[in-house]
Amino acid sequence: MSLVSQLQTRIAHNPLAVRWHGLPPRDRLALGLLGGFLLLVLLYLLLWRPVSQDLEQARSFLQQQRALHAYLQENAPQVRALQGRPQVDIDPTALQGLVTGSAASQGLNIERLDNQGDGGLQVSLQPTDFGRLLRWLVSLEEQGVRVEEAGMERAEKGLVSTRLLLRAG
Fold first, then answer.
1. Which of 10, 62, 89, 167: CA 20 to 30 A from 139?
2. C-alpha to C-alpha distance for 156 and 169, rounded to whole angstroms
3. What's the rounded mean pLDDT across residues 79-101?
4. Is the pTM of the predicted complex or chain greater than 0.85?
């Protein structure tokens, strides 16, 4: 006895197959259409919908990156001009007041502020928009503050957590 005939015999004696063949043709057609509809719904939910959501997220991320690129390109001449300009001297004792005041004016929230023994200031910021952070750093540099170390981590979508070591002059 071949494998195919054994399989056909087992299917023919299966209680579910016996019950299926015992149904009227109209009921079999209705159940077949319902099964096809459920299959299409499952394909949509498991395949098409996640892919389309990922595509939309990728498009949104691309737009954000394009906006950031445009911002950087727009401000590149200002950065180049600042490179040749002499730095403004600031008193190291006034550094903390300057940093907290300028952060508040830019809408940034300082999470932690530590004075270093050698005149540096360790600053940790709550997650903030990257563009706003860049504008604040540029304004600090214009006021004579030097960024010695910067550590940034992606916090949430479009936000970064930042740790900085700042020094006067």
1. 62
2. 33
3. 75
4. no
